[in-house]
Design a protein that fits this description.
Belongs to the EPSP synthase family. With 442 residues, this protein is an alpha/beta fold. The protein has 2 domains: 225 residues, UDP-n-acetylglucosamine1-carboxyvinyl-transferase, Chain, CATH 3.65.10; 212 residues, Alpha-beta prism (UDP-n-acetylglucosamine1-carboxyvinyl-transferase, Chain), CATH 3.65.10.10. The chain is built from 13 helices and 28 strands. A 4-stranded mixed β-sheet has the order 1-2-28-26, with helices on one face. A 4-stranded mixed β-sheet has the order 3-16-18-17. A hairpin with a 2-residue loop joins strand 17 and strand 18. Helix 1 packs parallel to helix 7 and helix 8 packs parallel to helix 12. It binds shikimate-3-phosphate. The site of shikimate-3-phosphate has 12 residues, from helix 1 and helix 6.
Length: 442
């Protein structure tokens, strides 16, 4: 039995017995990263952008509201086909009120690159309680090097932030972290500056911005040997049709669910398999999961496929180094997979998880621990010994969408009742998650 109940602003998801089997075809919602970028590039391009398959989650809604407040015309987010009429690169209007990025780090960080370059205009930017604690200095510092004027709480590290738009100058930024949000912020600011801006990162992060900027007419050079991207400033963008593939980070929940639940077979259609995002497939393959990639194709500049998963006996693995940015959002659900794998799984080099929507290392260790998992928090990762049966418990999402969904998949395979508090967080990236869970549950 799966039951979602709402009281006041909070929801509880109750999963009250183990799944005997999971069966069916699943269509997952649009990719969150690509949805944000399509809205933003559409908003600053000239002419019309048509977005097909947009994620109708809370995070893209935050992006849409911010850019509507700055003059972009964006049709209602009540259908997956959304039309955007852009204002042109430097045409964002000074908003009448504070821009609210909600729970979305991508909205805030990418948008800051654009706002910093709107010469002579003032912007204030905030977010929810989680976003207000997340580090913004990682984008503010390089933007300041470009000449940006940004003030913020906590010595200019946290939102609420105030931005006074300037004419920015290009830089070569060597980012200390492999972060697509940092890279994209600087590339967007670079697009607004005269000359060439380069970002070099220590390992390759997701490249959706590069692909989409190129499709909109941006001029980019990519040096794969050094993980560097250069953008030529001042190139006008032209509205496009963007087809958003399904989000592999959302598919990850079903890949793990299908692998760890007895007698299961799931087909997940139309999943984006951009190589900068497929660390989850490699990790699950290392763990012995029975996953088949079928119907590989390319849709609007992004590779897409259908994924089939069947019940498999998993074994432990070690994950560290360059694969981490390629599965950064999938570590909570991989921790669940590790609880059902033979041996001890070690995840390292993942300290970035501490500054996501929640401290995902601490929260997964605590909440899976309540369910009986043998899980230890490391300074930069997790150590999980599989094979101890999980039991139902009362757990909390810490308002983090990926924590809520990971715990739900653990609960499907736990003995007894699990109650997930603050389950409303799921609607950030996957509003139809519980409906799909009910459809495939036997
Ligand atoms: C994202 C990049 C990643 C990821 C986040 C979305 C993006 O964050 O965790 O969910 O859309 O660029 P970082 O850039 O902080 O690693």
């Amino acid at each position: 039995m799966i039951n979602l109940t709402h009281n006041q602003n909070s929801s509880q998801l109750v999963i009250s017995h183990q799944a005997q089997s999971l069966q069916g075809n699943i269509t997952i919602p649009g990719d969150k990263s690509i949805s944000h970028r399509a809205l933003m590039l559409g908003a600053i391009a000239s002419g019309e952008t048509i977005i097909k398959g947009l994620l109708l989650g809370e995070d893209p809604r935050s992006t849409a509201k911010c850019f509507q407040a700055m003059g972009a015309k964006i049709s209602e987010l009540n259908s997956e086909e959304v039309r955007v009429i852009g204002v042109g690169e430097k045409g964002l209007q000074e908003p009448f009120d504070v821009l609210d990025a909600g729970n979305s780090g991508t909205t805030m960080r990418l948008m800051l690159g654009l706002l910093a370059a709107q010469s002579g205009k003032f912007f204030s930017v905030t977010g929810d309680d989680s976003l207000k604690t997340r580090p913004m200095s990682r984008v503010i510092k390089p933007l300041q090097e470009m000449g940006a004027i940004i003030y913020g709480r906590n010595n200019h590290q946290n939102a609420p932030l105030a931005v006074v738009g300037q004419n920015l100058k290009p830089i070569h930024y060597h980012s200390p972290i492999a972060s697509a949000q940092v890279k994209s912020c600087i590339l967007l600011a670079g697009l607004m500056s005269e000359g060439k801006t380069t970002v070099t990162e220590p390992a390759l992060s997701r490249d959706h911005s590069e692909r989409m900027l190129h499709a909109f007419g941006g001029k980019l050079e990519i040096d794969q040997d050094t993980n560097s991207v250069t953008i030529e400033g001042g190139t006008p963008l032209q509205g496009q049709t963007v087809i958003v593939p399904g989000d592999i980070s959302s598919a990850a929940f079903w890949l793990v669910a299908g692998a760890i639940t007895p007698d299961s077979e799931l087909t997940i259609t139309n999943v984006g398999i951009n190589p900068t995002r497929t660390g989850i497939l490699e990790a699950l393959e290392m763990m012995g999961a029975d996953i088949t990639i079928i119907n590989e194709r390319e849709t609007a500049g992004e590779p897409v496929a259908d994924l089939q998963v069947k019940t498999s006996q998993l074994k432990a693995c070690t994950l560290s180094g360059a694969i981490i940015p390629r599965l950064i959002d999938e570590i909570p659900i991989l921790a669940v997979a590790a609880c059902f794998a033979e041996g001890t799984t070690i995840i390292k080099d993942a300290e970035e998880l501490r500054v996501k929507e929640s401290d995902r290392l601490a929260v997964m260790a605590l909440e899976l621990g309540k369910m009986g998992a043998k899980i230890t928090e490391l300074p930069d990762g997790l150590e999980i010994t599989g094979g101890n049966p999980l039991r139902g418990a009362e757990v909390d999402s810490y308002t983090d969408h990926r924590i809520a969904m990971s715990l739900a998949i653990a609960a499907l395979n736990a003995k007894g009742n699990t109650t997930i508090n603050r389950a409303e967080a799921i609607s950030i990236s996957y509003p139809t998650f519980v409906d799909t869970l009910k459809e495939i549950f036997n």
